[in-house]
Amino acid sequence: MTTALAKEEAYEFLDSHPGRLILSTVGKDGYPHSVPVSYIRLGDEIYVGARSRTQRAKNVERNHRVSADL
Which domain holds residue 11? Predict the structure, then answer.
């Protein structure tokens, strides 16, 4: 079962360990793709370091459901 965080909970999670996290996406083959990423939160916007043609960027374009862990 998937549980979504409330916006405030997500911000608390991100702000508690700023800078780096593990981003997990779903690849075209249905398997998870997990990579370390840099990020910054500015207000309601979260910017993740990724070049547009990386696998993680392609996966997010195809399926916006992601998971993050420290």
Answer: 7-69
- The 10s digit of each residue's pLDDT in 7-62 is 999 889 888 888 998 999 999 999 999 999 999 999 999 888 888 899 999 999 99
Distance (Å) of CA 26 to CA 3, 7, 8, 32: 17, 22, 25, 5
The CATH number of whichever domain residue 64 belongs to comes to 2.30.110.10
54 lies in a domain?
A: yes
pTM greater than 0.85: no
Query: What are the Cα distances from residue 22, in Å, to 42, 69?
Result: 19, 5
